[in-house]
Write a structure and sequence with these properties.
Layout: E1 3-6, H1 8-15, H2 21-32, E2 37-41, H3 42-55, H4 58-69, E3 73-76, H5 80-92, H6 97-108, E4 112-115, E5 128-131
Parallel strand pairs: 1-2, 1-4, 2-3, 4-5
Length: 133
């Protein structure tokens, strides 16, 4: 079964009904049906939490994270191998450390990152990317 890695951008687009939300929703439905496996690194989940907390409140951020935890999305805790790969990507250039974890997870699973975040362009030769429109 194919695995797709969601970054914070993808889930934020879904929750805020921004461009790309339909694609993420389709992926979530496919995951619930067992057609595709979805995963997110806990670091990227933290990115979602702090983004929502800043804009609204910690309670609202907790609510969104609880929703994600109830979805057909595996939440992956990084081990040293994943953390080291993220650090390698961060050392290469101008990309957020959290995004580096999504890229490292995609590399570890030989899977695709689903995102609209242009920062990933610098890693296009390293990992496969499915761009949200």
């Amino acid at each position: 079964m194919e695995t797709k890695i969601l970054d914070a951008f993808a889930l934020m687009a879904f929750f805020h009904d921004e461009p790309g939300a339909e694609t993420v929703e389709e992926l979530m439905l496919a995951a619930e049906q067992g057609v595709v496996k979805l995963a997110i690194c806990v670091v990227n989940l933290g990115e979602i939490w702090y983004s929502i907390s800043r804009k609204t409140s910690p309670e609202s951020a907790d609510h969104f994270v609880q929703e994600i935890q109830g979805m057909a999305i595996e939440i992956v805790n990084p081990d040293w191998s994943l953390t080291r790969q993220a650090a390698i990507y961060k050392a290469k250039g101008n990309i957020s450390y959290a995004d580096c974890f999504a890229a490292a997870l995609a590399k570890a699973h030989d899977s695709v990152i689903v995102t609209g975040d242009k920062e990933f362009m610098m890693l296009a030769n390293e990992v496969k990317i499915e761009w949200l429109k």
